[in-house]
Amino acid sequence: MNTTVVNTGTEGKTWGGGKDPLNASYGKMMMWFFIVSDALTFSGFLAAYGFSRFKFIDSWPIADEVFTHVPFMHGQDLPMIYVAFMTFILIMSSVTMVLAVDAGHHLNKQKVSIYMFLTIIGGIVFVGSQAWEWNTFIKGEYGAVQTRSGNLLQFVDAEGHRVAISDFAIAEHSTRAQHEKKNGIWFTSEGTLPAYSVNEVVKGMEANENVLVRTELLNAEGQKTVLSRAESLRQLKSNGQLVVQGANLQVNEYGKPIFADFFFFITGFHGFHVLSGIILNIIIFFNVVVGTYERRKSYEMVEKVGLYWHFVDLVWVFVFTFFYLV
Amino acid sequence: MAHAQKLEIFRGALKFKSNTDKIWGVLILLSVITAIEVVLGIYKPEILMGYVAGMKVLNWIFIILTVVKAYYITWDFMHMRDEKAGLRRAVVWTGIFLICYLSFILLTEGGYIENVYSSGYITHDF
Fold it and tell me: What are the residue boundaries of the Heme-copper oxidase subunit III family profile domain, all occurrences included (chain A) (predicted)?
């Protein structure tokens, strides 16, 4: 008998070694580990978004007014419809994924390939929709004037409908030349100048009797506050600094710049996950097609990549709620 | 991987004949919940605008429906229903505990800063 081996008395027990105590393979368990840590990353982002939102709780943008566009339906006010469509696409591709996993359990190669293919298509449609959504958000619609403190003045008519700056501002000859490398300091450059100056907006507002300023502050009914005509002109003249069109990481015509920052960061990070998911799905799809798992007699790889894909869907459910609904 | 799958949802009130049927059933459930959310989000019924525990009833409904959706995605699409209790608890409780903790801390802090702004110590509207 070998004297260096100690008998632990746990042989044959659940945690005695040589078994899968949690009934999950190493790979699947590591995918769960990754999902837990990634879920915490996303909750960190969403909680930070909540922090900023609570900080500006009385002046946060109203999502229904920001995301109102649907492709091919110009000029119509359709809040939520497009994101609901995107959510449905993602849930649908989750369903085809889980059907692929199910077909894998029955070692049905043909079905697994078809469902994997449909999942990839769903993912691509989702990423494409998100690109369109970003594009619309970046371009902007009405424009606004930013004040010295970074607050926003938006414009409405007497009925409270939004008015685009380009509809009433009076363009005049501008003496402000854009700074380029060839006419100024060679190592700096500036972005495109706003289409209108604050002066032109003031002129336009004086000429149009029924244009009013709307501030970011929410009133008791949860609507943005509209100023009186005299107060509108005073605010614009004394505080207006910059005409803002669309959104980027510095300025945002819809409200607080940090709203745009979080929008880009969180939906961007999620979109990046979807993109990686599509790439993983494509790799696994080709493995299925060439018969790797057929020979292995196990489609567990499909199951693991499926876990990741469902997780991406799960995150979207939360992003959808906290960006578009609440 | 042909281990047995639990085919009933709603604590056994609804039992499906096959795994495929269950998947479609869960899809219908998730779609219905999303549709409810979208309709509530568009019409925002006046009756749900009251406040409960510092938040609008409507927002509470949205958050609860989201958690319900998350449950069915995890339990039926990610097959958590068929995993061992040890794995299930390790994943779910770790996540829930840390997420609740983090949200509580950050939201409390955000509310405090809002309070500093609105009680007039700092002018931020000029």
Answer: 1-326
Q: What does the CA dihedral A106, A107, A109, A112 come to, rounded to 10 degrees?
A: 50
Tell whether B59 is within 8 A of chain A (Cβ).
Answer: yes
This complex has an ipTM of 0.90
Give this prediction's pTM: 0.88
Q: Is A32 in CB contact (< 8 Å) with chain B?
A: yes
Whether domain A26-140+258-325 has CATH 1.20.120.80: the reply is yes
Distances from the Cα of A18 to the Cαs of A10, A21, A66, in angstroms?
A: 11, 9, 57
Domain range summary for chain A, segments of one domain joined by +: 26-140+258-325, 144-173+186-245
| pLDDT tens over chain A, length 326 residues | 556 666 667 777 877 777 788 888 888 999 999 999 999 999 999 999 999 999 998 889 988 888 888 888 777 778 888 999 999 999 999 999 999 999 999 999 999 999 999 999 999 999 999 999 999 999 988 999 999 888 899 999 888 888 888 888 888 776 667 777 777 788 877 777 777 888 888 888 888 888 999 988 888 777 888 888 888 999 898 888 889 998 988 889 998 999 999 999 999 999 999 999 999 999 999 999 999 999 999 999 999 999 999 999 999 999 999 999 88
120-179 of A, contacting B, C-beta below 8 A = 147-149, 151
